[in-house]
């Protein structure tokens, strides 16, 4: 894997991650009813740190391969949707709109993972934990939205 290419992909992931710092869940989210299986607060930054390293490594592995155009297009789409979810859910407090975004994010991550598997099994495997995490996040988004029907607008 080209180290410079990895750093460029990691910088892209870092840009997506900044929305988490810019749109802190804060008191609004703390006050919402959440399911008992909600991960502890410390799990989110820890999980995302590992996931972004895996995502960047997978992207760097596939970007140089012949026939990777669709895989990289799906990669760009998932990263854009990843970046979009936090400001919609935490910034605008639109849990329903967040649900729509996270469904499309799940589809884009799944498509990226499948496209990566077709080109490089390691890159595909590096995306599997991300798909699992987005699945959990989507279930959490849905559960919080359903438990707090009047807390959707800022």
Walk me through what this model shows:
With 154 residues, this protein is mainly alpha-helical. The protein has helices at 3-22, 26-30, 43-63, 69-91, 95-119, 121-147. The protein has one domain (3-147): Ferritin. It is built from six helices and no strands. The mean pLDDT is 95.
- What sequence of helices (H) and strands (E) makes up the elements? HHHHHH
Average pLDDT, all residues: 95
CATH superfamily caption: TspO/MBR protein
Beta percentage is under 5%
Short key terms for the protein model shown above:
single chain; 154 residues; mainly alpha; Ferritin; 6 helices; 79% helix; 0% strand; elongated
Detail the topology: elements first, then pairings:
Layout: H1 3-22, H2 26-30, H3 43-63, H4 69-91, H5 95-119, H6 121-147
Helix pairs in contact: 1-3, 1-4, 3-6, 4-5, 5-6
What's a quick, concise take on this entry?
The chain has 154 residues and is an all-alpha fold. 79% of the residues lie in helices and 0% in strands.
């Amino acid at each position: 894997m080209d180290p410079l290419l990895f750093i460029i992909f990691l910088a892209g992931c870092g840009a997506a991650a900044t929305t988490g710092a810019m749109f802190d869940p804060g008191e609004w989210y703390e006050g919402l009813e959440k399911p008992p299986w909600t991960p502890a607060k410390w799990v989110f930054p820890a999980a995302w740190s590992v996931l972004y390293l895996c995502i960047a490594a997978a992207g760097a592995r596939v970007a140089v391969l012949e026939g990777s155009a669709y895989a990289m297009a799906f990669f760009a789409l998932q990263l854009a949707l990843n970046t979009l979810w936090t400001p919609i859910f935490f910034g605008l407090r639109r849990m329903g709109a967040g649900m729509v975004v996270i469904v499309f994010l799940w589809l884009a991550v799944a498509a990226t993972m499948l496209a990566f598997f077709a080109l490089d099994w390691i890159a595909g495997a590096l995306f599997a934990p991300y798909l699992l995490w987005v699945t959990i996040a989507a279930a959490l988004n849905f559960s919080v939205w359903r438990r707090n029907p009047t807390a959707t607008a800022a």
